[in-house]
Structures are given as C-alpha cells and as structure tokens.
C-alpha cells in the first residue's frame, strides 16, 4: 500500500521543514498555532487529498481522528477498481466512513463484490449518484432492492455483466431511482427484458443513455416503450439485440429527436425502411429547432451509427442517411458511420470521401 514506507518520524520531519520553509514559525493566519499534522486547515487537507490517488486517500483517513473526520466527510468520489483481491472487505470497511460519496467505481476484472457490500453502500451512502458495479457476477437481486431504498438519487448506474439480476428487481429499482439518466445493462440478458424496459420507460423519463448490448431477449415491444417513455434518449446501444426489427428504429426516429448515437450491430432484421425513417427524423426534429437553438443545443442529428453486419441494407438507403446527417462519416479518420461487414455497402461514402476522389478537371478554374 502507498504510504507504508513512510514512518511517523519522517512525517514529523517533513512537517518541521514545511514550517521552516513557510517562515511563520508555526504561526498561521488568524494567530492559530500549528503544532502538528493534525492542525492542517481542513480546506488545505481536502485540497491535498484531491490530488492523491484513491488508495492514498484511504490511508490518509487513517492518520488521526482529525484527518479521518475531514476526509470522510469531504470525499465525494472514490474508485476501488485497483483493488484486485479484497474489494468486498474494503467496501465493508470504507462505506460506513465515507458517507458523503456521490461517485463510487467498483469495476472488477474478476468478481469479488457480494450483496453485503452493496447493502452497506445503500445503508450508509445516501447521496450516491454514480455507481459502477460492472462485472459483479456474484451480486443477486438483494443488491438492487437495497439500492432502491438507500440510493434514490442515482443518476448513473453501470451493472454491465451482472448476469444474476432479474428483470423484476431492476423494474423495482427504477420505481425508486427515477432520476436515472445513464444505465448500462450490457450483457444483462436475464435483466434487460421487455418487462424491465417497460418499467424503465414508465419510471425514468429523463433517461439519456442506455446500453442494451447483447441483451438478445429484447424485442420491439421493449424498445418502442422506451422511445415513448424516454424522449430525451441520446445514446442507445442495441448491438446484438437480434430480435428487433424496423419497428424499433421507426419508433426511435419518430419520438427521440435528441438521438445522437445508435448501435445496431448485428441486428439483421433491420431493412432500408429503418434507414429512411432515420433520415426523415431530422425533418421532424427541425420542428424543435428553435427550442434547441434557445437552449444552446446542437441539433445536427445522428453523430454515430453502427449498422455493421446489418446485411439486409442496400446502398441507396444508407447513402440517404449518410447525406442527411453531416456528422456521419465513412472516411477512416472519423468513421462515425460504421458499415464494416456489409459487403454490399462498399459504395456508400461520406461527403469528404467524394470530394477526395473528385478528378482535378472537375474543380472550378481559378479566376484570372
Ligand atoms: Zn468523412
């Protein structure tokens, strides 16, 4: 652990040097006298802690009761993803102290977290807004029930790869955490069913970003509900949702005018109809243009579209989409319209690619 090599005597020596360099002989503003590390002003301590890594911040909280109180009440963001072996115990010990946490990143390479750790977070950290539990295979529905009751202010939740959660537990959570804006359910096949999506649509009208990658039980019923319930949706990942058809894309195009990124990788039921509806969505979105200008929102439409492996699409329909949204590019540097794996779409190009291939004779002659 960082800090293990530093003995108390070394710290005292550093402190003495600090006083000499400061030239104040230990005298601080306002006449207070600094006699040791424990007298470091709270603001200064928090400033120092904000500059060190999370591991060191936890060590610093154990220096003395004064530091513990300041750091535990002042720290709002923490990542324990560096903890490769004992994350569950670390959370059990840290969560009851760091009660003001708003962001907690607990991403794991191999599953360590168990329900009692998440229950402790829910019981102690009621201000939590951003929680990353990705790859917590061992967690069960109890974790989601606990979060529903303890963390009603969640705006961002990542449970990608948490394969044991049921759809009813997620539906339950959305009934309590209604401010969720970012939800990552990638690989949660059991969790992200149409029933769960209907609950999200009903409860989380502010949702802006949803990852449903490889949730292959999702159908048009779920996606259509989302399109109607979450009109502010900006980023939607449906890669590998093999059951969805044009109906899903048409509903999104009609209802979600802020949609900026759509991933349809491997959605092989998608046809040209879906592409034309996306191109038309820009026209519909224009009705809200004035509102967007007033709120300073850029209304350029889609900025990322992945239709890789959507083998039923034809070049004219995809070219219309590419021409409709100036931010979509097929050129190597920008690559925001991804069509790899669609051998019949090789003729689709963005405007800059067409310009690059234009013969020199076609350029206007400079005026003499
Ligand atoms: Zn381009």
TrEMBL record:
InterPro entries: F-box-like_dom_sf, F-box_dom, FBXL15_LRR, Leu-rich_rpt_Cys-con_subtyp, LRR_dom_sf
Leader sequence residues: none
Boundaries of every F-box/LRR-repeat protein 15-like leucin rich repeat domain copy: 72-281
Classification via Gene3D superfamilies: 1.20.1280.50, Ribonuclease Inhibitor
F-box domain sequence ranges: 37-71
Superkingdom, natural source: Eukaryota
Protein name: F-box protein SKP2A-like
UniProt lineage: Eukaryota, Viridiplantae, Streptophyta, Embryophyta, Tracheophyta
